[in-house]
Specification:
18 strands, nine-stranded mixed β-sheet, single chain, alpha/beta, about 40% helix, five-stranded parallel β-sheet, elongated
Length: about 500
């Protein structure tokens, strides 16, 4: 679940931020040749691909920039290209996305890195790489750094993102200089790393390796997750990072910050191609942080975005409309998941408490949900961090209110409550009072309507005994289920 779902949705729909993200790294042109295979060559036992169409997209650090642009973020890009036709095509693609390429440096003797993939159906048949990356001269690095400094001087850079594909751009000297510039300006730096030695990223805000990359950097096995993440925690300390975001493929994403490790589960999606998924994760993480989202919520969005792009064949950046759609779909799923059994609820409560969050508990029938209920629940939520509702079953409602009640069945009442932003969990109870449920949850705050007195609140003395509080929440005058039902009955009587 998001810590602030409304803020996450607002960030996506607004285009995240007006600040510029400066992406520095290895620029690649990805070329795709799509065709059909219907026969084997008579010349040798290889498939013959009948070409149907071809396309080109930005790859490497250029794909990171394209992901940001697709989200509505202002992007500037720095890196090297060759003086060749592929450079022209790559720059044309980038400028078509309104990406600032003023800091992209063209070098003689350098080949614009190009990866050509031949694909039939969903299957990649062959990849052809074209790259000539000679050792960089000091003057080449200075030209790159001069362009980066110019972006800092302009004053609109809000975040720097280093996208390392180990193609020569992000040398030790360049990494250290860019991180130093950013730190001096108070600008965060995110890194998508490569290689086994991460010392050149020291002082960055965060790095986002995948599982195998982290294992290589920590010189440990990738198969055992807990020791791997513990090693990642040590790496954070060594490199003086604020946090680590580890992509775990089918196991989601792990956020490592200080002593705390939190996991975001993977989404159940059909995976066609993981190419560029890491680019999408780091781009959405950067956009989310710049928009003021918490690290966990920014990574949650990144996880959603990665779930979209792996369902495509070939490198494909996320688009804002796709992320909005995915976020809306998850909102509906999360709403239904708020309805839980007591064992599941207790696991969630334990997780919330581990993060230092206060649990607010209230209970009721919530038959014919109305504006008074919504106002009451919003006020109750503000007393802590998580609001848990104990909801009377149909049987217990009848025992309290008599035959003919409830009007709305328990499953429907639970689903409507779960759709409210203020509500974090709904659990049904069948007893005449919620006392045993309150004892199991042990909330920090027990909320009840101000039409009760404190001594009338079931569970009040128990909650105060373990250091909690009882809160009486003001109700909205003239709003009640009984009034609504009398009004409906009155209308019916007048029409008879």
């Amino acid at each position: 679940m998001f810590e602030s779902e409304q803020q996450a949705l607002a960030a996506v729909t607004s285009g995240f931020t007006k600040k510029t993200v400066l992406v520095v790294g290895d620029l690649i042109l990805d070329r795709y040749l799509w065709g059909d295979v219907n026969r084997i060559s008579p010349e040798s036992p290889v498939p013959v691909v009948q070409l149907v169409h071809e396309n080109e997209v930005a790859g490497g650090a250029a794909n990171v920039a394209a992901n940001l642009a697709g989200l509505g973020v202002v992007v500037a890009l720095a890196g090297f290209v060759g003086c060749d036709p592929n450079r022209n095509r790559l720059l044309e693609l980038l400028r078509g996305e309104a990406i600032d390429t003023a800091a992209v440096v063209a070098l003689d003797g350098w080949s614009t890195i190009t990866k050509t993939r031949i694909i039939s159906g969903q299957q990649q048949m062959l990849r052809i790489d074209r790259e000539r990356v000679p050792d960089l001269k000091i003057t080449d690095q200075e030209r790159l750094l001069a362009g980066i400094r110019a972006k800092f001087v302009a004053g609109d850079v809000g975040l720097v993102l280093l996208s390392d594909y180990a193609k020569g751009v992000l040398s030790d000297a360049v990494c250290r200089e860019v991180i130093a510039m950013a730190r001096a300006a108070g600008i965060p730096v995110l890194v998508d790393p490569k290689g086994q030695d991460y010392k050149k990223y020291s002082g960055a805000t965060a790095i986002s390796p995948n599982r195998l990359e982290l294992a290589a950097a920590c010189r440990t096995r990738a198969t055992e997750l807990e020791p791997l993440l513990a090693a990642g925690r040590e790496l954070c300390r060594e490199l003086e990072l604020d946090f680590l975001a580890v992509t775990l493929s089918g196991q989601g994403i792990a956020l490592v910050e200080g002593e705390l490790i939190r996991r975001i589960p993977a989404l159940a999606r059909e995976v066609y191609d993981v190419s560029g998924a890491g680019d999408t994760v780091i781009a959405v993480l950067a956009a989310g942080l710049l928009a003021g989202l918490s690290r966990l919520d920014a990574l949650h969005l990144a996880n959603l975005a990665a779930g979209v792009v792996v369902g495509k064949v070939g490198t494909a950046p996320i688009q804002r409309e796709e992320l909005i759609k995915s976020l809306s779909a998850e909102q509906a799923l999360e709403q239904s998941e708020k309805i839980c059994s007591l064992p599941d609820l207790l696991l969630r409560v334990e997780s919330w408490r581990a993060r230092g969050e206060r649990i607010v508990f209230t209970n009721g029938c919530f038959d014919l949900l109305h504006a008074g209920h919504v106002s009451y629940l919003e006020k109750a939520k503000r007393l802590g961090h998580r609001l848990v509702i104990g909801l009377n079953t149909d049987r217990s409602v009848r025992a309290l209110k008599g035959e003919g009640r409830p009007i709305i069945r328990e499953g429907d009442r639970a689903r409507v409550l779960a759709a409210l932003a203020a509500v974090d969990a709904v659990v049904l109870f069948d007893q005449d009072t919620p006392l045993s449920l309150i004892r199991a949850v042990r909330p920090e705050v027990l909320a009840k309507g101000a039409d009760y007195t404190e001594d009338q609140v079931v569970g009040g003395s128990e909650v105060k005994a373990w250091g909690g509080q009882v809160a009486l929440v003001d109700l909205v005058n003239g709003k009640s289920s009984s009034l609504i039902m009398r009004s409906i009955q009155g209308d019916r009587d007048r029409t008879v």
